Amino acid sequence: MQGYFTSPAGQRVKTQLYGYLLLLPALVFLLAFTHYPALATLRDSLYQPAHGSTPSAFVGIDNYRSIFSDEVFRQSLINNLKYALITIPSALVLALLMALAVNRQMKGKALARMIFFMPSLLPMVAVANLWLFFYSPQVGLLNQVLDGFGLPGHNWLGEPDTALYCLMAVTVWREAGFFMIFYLAGLQQIDPKLSEAARVEGADKFFFFRRVQWPLLMPTTLFILINATMNAFRIVDQVIAMTNGGPDNSTSLLLFYIYQTAFSFWDLPSAAAMTMVLLLVLGTVALLKFRLLDKRTWYQ
């Protein structure tokens, strides 16, 4: 046995075994806190809850039929899809524009970077209270600006037509600065000789961005898209702090309704079924992004 581990084949096995041992702690945490909870949630979604002395019983997909017949769940799912489709590209574009602005030589560059990044450092409760002041129908800053132009005020968070978009604005404002850091890091990894060559060839800034910078930023964009998607579907604290799902469930998002179903209504099987739907949505979106963007991604 000692001679086997000194042979070339044994050395390869020893190296692989050493690598697996290094991965083992992370693998244990991944299985314990990610895969096992997902499987346990899948199991719970297929059973009815226990009532008193009546044990839980297997009901198959009845819980899934129940949640899809729930009007509030369907509205929460639609709200969340709309929320993701608007906030993700908006935050991405704004983050890229901010990164391009502070990547060039300019006075106060460090201050500008700090100002752009600062919203992402604030706790969500502080962010929510700040924007509640802006949206307040009595003394809110937005209504004061409208009043200055002679326009009538608006109950921004009290109207179903505007409440969800107000939450979207807060999310974009908070996340764009965080995503800017990744784009800024990606821009600074691009070889400066490429921009010098482009200037020599007479290429303008837009052409250089479209043909050089944007393709080289695709790995960063893919990373940001995955993180932005997860953020868009796991938001709950902002909803609780600002609207609590109202008015008329117009700002009820999927994770908020799962939380409400599990800990306010104590319907754990239905909450588990909703969680599996959420995992399916996130997995599908991630798979589509990798399928569509991986072929257009170049790694330096």
**What is the tally of beta strands?**
0
Helical content (DSSP H or I, runs of 4+):
over 70%
- Number of structural domains: 1
Count the DSSP helices.
14
> What is the radius of gyration computed over CA atoms, rounded to a whole number of angstroms?
25 Å
Biggest sheet overview: none
- Uncertain parts: none
CATH topology term: MetI-like fold
Beta-sheet strand percentage? under 5%
- Under CATH, the homologous superfamily reads MetI-like
**At CATH's second level, what is the architecture?**
Orthogonal Bundle
What do these coordinates show?
This protein is an all-alpha fold. It has one domain (45-296): Orthogonal Bundle (MetI-like fold). It is 73% helix and 0% strand. The chain has 14 helices and no strands. It has helices at 2-6, 8-44, 62-68, 71-103, 109-117, 124-135, 141-148, 160-188, 192-200, 205-216, 218-233, 237-242, 254-263, 268-293. α2 (8-44) crosses α14 (268-293), α5 packs across α8 (160-188) and α8 packs antiparallel against α11 (218-233). The longest helix has 37 residues, at 8-44. The mean pLDDT is 87. InterPro entries: ABC_transporter_permease, MetI-like, MetI-like_sf.
Summarize the topology.
Blueprint: H1 2-6, H2 8-44, H3 62-68, H4 71-103, H5 109-117, H6 124-135, H7 141-148, H8 160-188, H9 192-200, H10 205-216, H11 218-233, H12 237-242, H13 254-263, H14 268-293
Keywords:
mainly alpha
Tell me briefly what this model is:
73% of the residues lie in helices and 0% in strands. The protein is mostly helical and 300 residues long.
